Every structure is written in C-alpha cells, then in structure tokens.
C-alpha cells in the first residue's frame, strides 16, 4: 500500500525541489478517435479536443497537482489519414479478440522520429546529456548523470503530435535496475489547468519497500502500479493497485496494457487482468514513456548502474480503436 498518494507529475516536481524520497504512485466500448503527424501511424483522423469539460467522480480529492506553468500551446491541426502497408493490420492486442479492434498507432522503433516524439515535458528544456536512443528496433532510455553530476528525468512523448480517446494501448518493454529508477508508460494531457492521467505502468526498484528485491547488491524491479488520476484542478486519485508480478521485470520483455472505455479502464500484465476501474475519462490523451527517479524506488546513487546496458527498453508502442 502507498504511504501517501500524490500525482506522478507532482511527485517528480517535489523530488527535484526538495530531494525528498516519496513513497507513492503517480500516478474499452465506444469508437476511438486519433490524430497523428506521422506516416508510420494508422490514424483514424479527427480533431484534437482541447477544452473538454471535467466529468463527475466520487473520488476523494488529494493535493492539487498542476505545475506552475501557463499552458499556451496550440493543438495540432487535423491531419489527413496516412497510408500504411496492409501487413500492419496483423498487429493485434495481446490476449484480445482481433475482430474488436482497428490499429491506429504502431511505433516499432525502426528509427527515432523527432516529428512524432518529443524528448522532454512541455514545460521543460531538453537536457543535452545523451541518455536515450533508438537502435536494434528498440527505444532505450538509461540512467545517466548530467554535466552537473545529477541524475535527470527523461520523457519521450507525443504531446502535440498524437492523441487518442478510448481504445486499447499496449507496450512491450524490459525495465532497468538500480536504486531510484522509476520507468513508466502513461496516457496524459494538460488542458488549461487540468491534468487527466492514466498510468498504465510505473515500476519500482529498491527503496524501503517490500516489492524491492536485491540481487548481487543491485535492486531489481518486480512490482509496478497502474493508476488513474481524474483530470480536474484538484487532482483526484481515482484508483491504483500495487501489483507484484513475482518475476524480475528487468530480465525479459513483458506487455503492459490498458483497455480504455468511456466509463471503464481495465489494466493488463502479459494479457492478465490486474485492475479494473469504473470511472468516466473522456479527454483525448497523448502517449508518454519515461525514466524518472524517486517515489518508492528511493534516490539514485553511486550504486545505480549507468549507461545504455541498463536501459528502459521499449520494443513497441501500439494503440487500437474499438470497431
């Protein structure tokens, strides 16, 4: 169980500002709507919504979470539907009926597409220290100290380039090891002061927590948490579950997914249902992959392995809409 419940974005901000270890998490159906700016995607077209009114929930409010920035970004324009080889349609959600879905997004990381992916959050400047790449058909993000000697967060997202409302979202990934490492895959948006958020996977290694294990003196991740935060100004935590997989998540690739329906979200680990929440979430969201530090993983230190060999490795990111 969490000792406290704070929004993932708030936790990261507090960790950077206060250097405090927080034990917390950040954290389908109807048809899906998607929009993209890249020819490698199969998108259904449509406009990005930017002012969707908040929806009702009975969740208990927690600490307000928006960062102290003004969102002045403009939504991307509607984009013509790109083309894609028919073979891409063979990609189906793991453990789901193929007949129920149409592929809308398929990133296989044959190359790094800077017109689709950003390498920072919208309010940040990009850290020039290189700690990510695309090679061997995978996105790799690894722990690295920058020029000042500090471990720094790296976020790879589709903000401004690809959004979707409802559907099935899945990655296949292998996680890094070491104290402080906090990798995640989430759906998110910043709409004025609102921050709707669905954390499909955020994993922990090390720290003073029962789900951390120690192998040869290095902390390895065995547990992760799916979490949903309501997109209102108060930052309401709708639900979360700490799920101990019983296996070393750094030793091989696993599938992390969510089926997002208008009034229901179902989370999966390797096709197994691990959490279901019944809550209305109707804002379009973009995709995020990151390697941050802190939360239940503790603070990174000299024992945290640095370099590409200890990467958060993502084999693919895919999304589907409901037929």
From TrEMBL:
CDD domains named in the record: GH16_laminarinase_like (cd08023)
UniProt GO molecular function: hydrolase activity, hydrolyzing O-glycosyl compounds
Chain intervals for the UniProt region annotation (Disordered): 34-93
UniProt key word Zinc: no
Transmembrane segments: none
Ranges of Low complexity composition bias in the record: 50-76
Matching Pfam families: Glyco_hydro_16 (PF00722)
Highest taxon of the lineage: Bacteria
SUPFAM superfamilies xrefs: Concanavalin A-like lectins/glucanases
Annotated GH16 domain residues: 68-323
GO biological process, one term: carbohydrate metabolic process
Signal sequence extent: 1-24
Keyword check for Signal: yes
Assigned keywords, A-Z: Hydrolase, Signal
Similarity field: Belongs to the glycosyl hydrolase 16 family.
The protein's name in its UniProt record: Glycoside hydrolase family 16 protein
Protein species of origin: Noviherbaspirillum saxi
Record lineage: Bacteria, Pseudomonadati, Pseudomonadota, Betaproteobacteria, Burkholderiales
């Amino acid at each position: 169980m969490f000792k406290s419940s704070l929004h993932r974005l708030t936790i990261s901000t507090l960790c950077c500002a206060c250097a405090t270890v927080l034990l917390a998490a950040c954290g389908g159906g109807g048809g899906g709507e998607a929009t993209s700016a890249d020819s490698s995607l199969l998108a259904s077209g449509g406009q990005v919504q930017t002012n969707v009114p908040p929806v009702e929930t009975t969740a208990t409010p927690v600490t307000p979470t928006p960062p102290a920035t003004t969102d002045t970004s403009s939504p991307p324009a509607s984009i013509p539907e790109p083309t894609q080889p028919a073979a891409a349609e063979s990609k189906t959600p793991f453990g789901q009926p193929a007949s129920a879905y149409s592929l809308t997004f398929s990133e296989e990381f044959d190359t790094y597409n800077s017109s689709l992916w950003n390498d920072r959050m919208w309010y940040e400047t990009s850290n020039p220290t290189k700690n990510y790449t695309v090679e061997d058909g995978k996105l790799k993000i690894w722990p690295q100290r920058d020029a000042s000697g500090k471990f720094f967060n790296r976020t790879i997202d589709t903000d401004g380039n690809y959004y979707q409302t409802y559907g099935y979202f899945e990655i296949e990934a292998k996680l890094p090891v070491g104290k402080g490492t906090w990798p995640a895959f989430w759906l998110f948006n910043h709409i004025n002061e609102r921050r709707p958020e669905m954390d499909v996977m955020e994993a922990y290694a090390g720290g003073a927590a029962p789900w951390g294990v120690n192998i040869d003196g290095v902390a390895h991740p065995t547990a992760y948490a799916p979490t949903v935060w309501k997109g209102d100004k108060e930052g309401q935590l709708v639900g979360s579950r700490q799920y101990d997989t019983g296996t070393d998540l750094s030793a091989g690739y696993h599938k992390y997914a969510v089926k997002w329906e208008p009034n229901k979200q179902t989370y999966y680990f390797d096709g197994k249902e691990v959490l279901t929440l019944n809550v209305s979430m109707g804002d379009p969201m973009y995709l995020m992959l990151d390697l941050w530090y802190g939360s239940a993983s503790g603070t990174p230190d000299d024992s945290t392995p640095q370099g590409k060999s200890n990467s958060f490795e993502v084999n693919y990111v895919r999304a589907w809409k409901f037929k």
